[in-house]
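Amino Acid Chain and Its Fold in Token Form
===========================================
Purpose: to set a sequence beside its fold so the mapping can be learned.
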Amino acid sequence: MMNHTLKSQCKVSPGTSITGKWHSQTYTIIKELGFGANGVVYLAKHKNTHVALKMSDNGMSITSEVNVLKSFAKVQGHSLGPSLLDVDDWQSNGGRISFYVMEYIQGPEFLAFIQMKGKSWTSVLFLQLLNDLDLLHATGWVFGDLKPENLIVTGPPPKIRCIDVGGTTIQGRAIKEFTEFYDRGYWGLGTRKAEPSYDLFAVAMIMINTAYPKRFTKTIGGLKQLKEAIRQKPELLKVEKVIVKALQGDYANARQMRTDLLDTMVEKPAISPRTAGVGNQSLKQTQQKNTKKSATVTRQTYRRKKKKSGWMEFFFIAVVLGLLYAWYTFNNLP
């Protein structure tokens, strides 16, 4: 959670005009969208366009988040997060406040979308999310504070987008912002080191969250409590193997988890022992037929070769006899 001192410093009333010190762009505040540990996000208007503006008195935090958005922009063909539009400082009555402006992504939050459109969309959206996380991790970052509130579904067609990159952390460092329910450290299942498996644990918890929209409180904690929660919901049992592997940190990257999740979506027909027996019998009969056919071909080939050899032998003897007869006739001429 954000400290109250920081929030009060960044508290801005609707209608306030914010003009950047360096770029001289003006933004009119409409309403507050949310706040976190490192700043407040507002919906603002700029030249008849809605934008999201985040301000903070922590310049280093703003710089870090701007770098994340720039990294997102380098991933061609994918919109991992909001587009970065402006970075500047605002000289308020309380002092200088840093801010940046980004694309305002409209749409329902992840869980709200699932409730509206149905749970049949769940796996499809998770496949998108895992693909986006794989691209993010490839740039050297971990999202960190991954939760449904930070996921917006735009469209049509439905497309999951990540917002609020305040918790995004360079891989190898300590996670700087998190929400307990999605944090593996809170459940005693790992450290808060920024690595791909940290985000994948959060993905598993969001999967559980889809079946428990109001979440649940920690009691005994650990894998035991989470497994019990999974086994009480039929929709989670279908992907139990994927969820548990992510909770245990068994996935090295998001691509592996995505592949396993995709496999659960593809129904594989079961083969009964009786059917398998029929198949084996059919295979055996085919092999026997092939063996007989091969034997028949071999005998035919042998016969052709033998016949050809016989004719060659006949002509050879005939030639020899002809030569001997000619020699004998020549030597006995009068």
The chain has ten helices and ten strands. Residues 272-279, 313-332 have pLDDT under 50 and may be disordered. The two ends are 135 Å apart (CA to CA). The chain has two domains: 4-103, 110-265.
